[in-house]
Amino acid sequence: MNDDTAVAALSALAHADRLAAFRMLVRAGPNGMASGEIAEALSIPPTRMSFHLATLERARLLRSWRDGRRILYAASYDDMRQLLAFLTEDCCSGNPEICGNLGADLLAPSCSSETCS
Prior knowledge:
With 117 residues, the chain is mainly alpha-helical. It has seven helices and three strands, in the order ααβααββααα.
């Protein structure tokens, strides 16, 4: 990951509706959710939600695929991990003991092998 990619991802997350949708999709796991379900759950008009999901997908935070007439979205866990690694790669000015096992600590409480692949 480079600075431009990280800025694009963080910019995409810098909107309350997009952040809520992204967090919902992280919880949903690799099978994802249909855009209409996300819009309904967050009480956001479907056209606006489609715009937000497209923004997150362009930032490589989501992936999408067609299932019949529906478009499903899921979090891109690999790109999410890359973003977290990029943000913490130079953590603590060469004193890694200060940071401890930050990556594992961030993901351990809520991310299991069943939901994050």
